[in-house]
Amino acid sequence: MSEPKFLTLDISGIVPEAGAPAPERIVSGNPQFRTWNAEERDGSLYAGVWESTPGKWRIEYDEWEFCHILSGVSVITQEDGAARTVRAGDSFVLRPGFKGSWEVLETTRKEYVIRL
Would you say which domain of life the source belongs to (predicted)? Predict the structure, then answer.
């Protein structure tokens, strides 16, 4: 049987991976992650759902990531201090080379597509 060519991001049958920022990246709080990876291709493309509890940590992107916020509120701040508040319904792309911080104010859940 061939692999389906249409995939929904139905995470109901996926056991989430638990995680957290590296301790040296945490600025405040105790953020905890859950990730439901629904698609992985050649180790260079990932798609799924990610969730984090409140906290703030430093981020550095080597990859390209599309995000669509499903719930919660976060503030993403660039290294130069420019900040964006994102909430349910917002979509954006973080490009390779992005540096700054991610602060989860209310537990945030997003759909993502990452390309390495």
Answer: Bacteria
